[in-house]
UniProtKB/TrEMBL annotation:
InterPro entries: Amuc_1100-like
Keywords: Membrane, Transmembrane, Transmembrane helix
Low complexity composition bias: residue spans: 277-298
Protein name per UniProt: Amuc_1100 family pilus-like protein
Amino acid sequence: MSWIQENRFAAGLGGITAVAAAGLIFWGIKASGDYSTAKEEYTSAADEVDLMAGGKVYPSEDNLQAKKKAVADYKKSVEDMQAAFEKFRTPTPANVDPAAFSDTLLKAKEVASKAFAEILPTPTEVPAEFFLGMEAYTTSPPERGATGILTYQLEALSELMANLAAATPAKLLNIHRPQLDEEKAGAKPFDAKGKSYRALPVEIAFNGTEASVRKFLSSLDDSKTHYYVVRSIRIVNERQVAPTSADGNFEKTEEAQPDAGAGSSDPFGGAGGFVLPGDDAAAPADDAAPADAAAPAPAAGGDGVILQQVLGSEKLNVFLRIDIIQFLEAPAAAAPKAQS
């Protein structure tokens, strides 16, 4: 008879104890793994919390109030900017009969041509086919659906030409207006959804003095009804080589005759009143002739006069790409829904 058969209780108790011990060991190992995993997750989460707490947008009450203030300040700045540009927010004129627009265009062209022709003493030269950049409509009218936006652009172009004429350039070289989408046959109306403005480009090239360029550029900020943005500018001196002494228009003066003191220590014999820079003019001798005492002093700033005679008379060739900005009407705010 075996020991297990003779000691069934002890054997059963030992078996149960072994199974229980194995189960405890397994549970302990599993619990230890779960603990390690949980600890790692906790450590990772704690690190993220510490990182957030150290950042600028940690969700605390102070940061929440600061965020609300920043949003409110930004909103006010946008509203202030909108108010500043409100005077430029002009709706697109209604479309008119193409023949009526052609009449308006012809009148605008005549006004601009007259402004350039009345410049004195020399009128501004304009291109032979000058028609405010709308030369395509000298023989045929535009599409009816484009007359509204073309009227708006024509008003801005007329103002530009009036300002340019006031700047008295020597020559209007060219004015080019890229075609708008509405001008194409069968084109759809401009889609203003999600847009706050629209750019209507125009390119102007003219020749004039530096003063005329500065005056025209300054006039772009003076408009009360239109907003202009200079997208690109190129200025080239019409003279590509530097002036030389031969270009100077020097006045010829009668040369002074050397007197008896020509052989003295003065190597210039006293002629012309030559004085080195920083030296005082020598006092006239007691026995100097009255004519010498009454001799006029040399004109001050002679070097400046010479430079003016050599420089500053060149004209400039100027190219400008200007966007006429049309600020679109703000979309109407949606009415609040009625609560049931």
